[in-house]
Amino acid sequence: MGMMRVAQISRPNGPLEIVERTIPEPGAGAVRIRVQACGICHSDALTKEGAFPGIQYPRVPGHEVAGVIEAVGPGVAGWEVGQRVGVGWNGGYCGYCDNCRRGEFFACVRSQTTGVTYDGGYAEYMIAPASAVARMPADLPPAEAAPLMCAGLTTFNALRNSGARPGDVVAVLGLGGLGHLGVQYAAKMGFHTVGIARGKDKEPLARQLGAAVYIDSQAQDPAAELIKLGGAKVILATATSGEAMSAVQGGLAVNGALLVVGAAESMQVSPMFLLMGCRSIRGWYSGTSIDSQDTLAFSVQTGVRTMNETYPFERVSEAYDRMMSGKARFRVVLTMSS
User: Fold this and answer.
1) Residue 147 — left, alpha, or beta (φ > 0 → left; ψ -120 to 50 → alpha)?
2) Counting beta carbons within 10 angstroms of the beta carbon of residue 210, is it exposed (0 to 12), middle (13 to 18) or buried (19 or more)?
3) Three-state DSSP class for 119?
4) Which of 27, 31, 45, 236 has the fewest CB neighbours in a 10 Å radius?
5) How confident is the model over 230-244, as pLDDT tens digits?
6) Is-above-0.90 flag for pTM?
7) CA Rg, the chain, in Å?
8) How far is Cα 165 from Cα 84, in angstroms, rounded to an integer?
């Protein structure tokens, strides 16, 4: 077999090193994917910093993968060489544990996590279980598709499962990597979309993305502004600040939900406010491969696009640092030359 380049971490907090490895063969139930692009997500820090329990090194990060199936292992049905595919955070599920049997595939007790429990997409090739693979629309370029596999999936899937209906007030807190997609999805789904971020300078962006209303949380009380609109049926919290989440809760309508997708350490909640209006706070897991497939299809149908900064594979360390700096507009994507 030939050789391939991968960018690996060999110890917690170690650097990203580009090394050569033998191109692997897919085992039973798995496929080999030639990676064309891989998004760099903040969750890749779990692999870089060793924050995920039980992680084994060396490890190749990356769970926003767009590529082409190049080889199919034994016992794989429904996938063939040459298909354009993606792989996201959910790295496959067993199908036979109690959670899987109840249809909660995301909560599989044997589930894998791409780029965490097995090698991910910072590589020219990767192996993935067939259950982790999503079909990619033909007219979506790999570098555009890649971030939709996590940032797109998380926001699209959360909103479509939120219970909000067309015409409802839906607010998106934060206009970064997730939020700039969340606003687009909310607008395309027919919600009365509100963007909430810090500073007046974000307003043109929010409106360009489809927000009907913009709230500058530095100059205005976001909860009070939402109440003026009748309260939010859903607030999609993409910001990683618990303080920001606490500040918007008061803007929830009766039966409204704060839908948390931003990984903040902690937040303050008013139990009285929740129980007086039957309000709720719920987390949302990104989704599985079929949810990714739906995300990609909807994005192509409705023209939702991620805004990216692309880097060649050789500049992986620089690209990772750019993502961690928080200055990227809005997702960082590695592209493979081969």
Assistant:
1) alpha
2) middle
3) coil
4) 27
5) 999 999 999 999 999
6) yes
7) 20
8) 33
